[in-house]
Amino acid sequence: MLGRVNHIAIAVPDLAAATAIYRDTLGARVSQAQALPEHGVTVVFVELPNTKVELLEPLGENSPIAAFLEKSPFGGMHHICYEVDDIIVARDSLRAAGARVLGDGNPKTGAHGKPVLFLHPKDFNGTLVELEQV
């Protein structure tokens, strides 16, 4: 079911500062910041040869990232995103196996313009898992 790792997401309290670290200190290529109001975040992608790192900053007071940063004020790993061929088939298979899909269970459009779903971290060893259809 799982394809390659699409990205690893890191929640950050200051997106501009985090972007500068990756761009200026580590010499990475970074995208422009992109606001995703339906997800409550602003994101920047650090482009690597084999995957991406997604830097997440809260967008608005109700952002799930704001709650994450309250517990971890310096930031930290938020989730890992895996690619799947068919997100509905993957969702249905995971539900049948007892995994919990967050939200209403219907895919939303992610930062890459593709359908995404999130899976409950308690079902995956404490890690929030995102699936993205490719």
What keyword list fits this structure?
134 residues; 2,3-Dihydroxybiphenyl 1,2-Dioxygenase, domain 1; 9-stranded mixed β-sheet; 3 helices
What layout of secondary structure does this protein have?
Layout: E1 5-11, H1 15-25, E2 29-30, E3 34-36, E4 41-47, E5 52-58, H2 64-71, E6 76-84, H3 87-96, E7 108-109, E8 115-119, E9 128-133
Parallel strand pairs: 1-5, 6-9
Antiparallel strand pairs: 1-6, 2-4, 3-4, 4-5, 7-8, 8-9
Q: How many angstroms separate the termini?
A: 12 Å
**In the CATH hierarchy, what is the class?**
Alpha Beta
**How much helix, percentage-wise, in residues?**
10-25%
Mean pLDDT: 96
Q: Determine the strand fraction and express it as a percent band.
A: 35-45%
Shape: globular
Count of strand segments:
9
Question: In CATH, what is the homologous superfamily?
Answer: 2,3-Dihydroxybiphenyl 1,2-Dioxygenase, domain 1
How would you characterize the largest beta sheet?
Answer: 9 strands, mixed
| Low-pLDDT ranges | none
- In CATH, the architecture is Roll
Q: Could you give a quick summary of the protein structure above?
A:
The chain has 134 residues and is α+β, with helices and mostly antiparallel strands.
Question: What does this entry look like structurally?
Answer:
By secondary structure, the chain is an alpha+beta fold. It has a single domain, classed as 2,3-Dihydroxybiphenyl 1,2-Dioxygenase, domain 1. 22% of the residues lie in helices and 36% in strands. It contains 3 helices and 9 strands, in the order βαββββαβαβββ. Strands 1, 2, 3, 4, 5, 6, 7, 8 and 9 form a 9-stranded mixed beta sheet that branches. A hairpin with a 5-residue loop joins strand 7 and strand 8. The longest helix has 11 residues. The protein is globular. The relative contact order is 0.20. The model has no long low-confidence stretch (mean pLDDT 96).
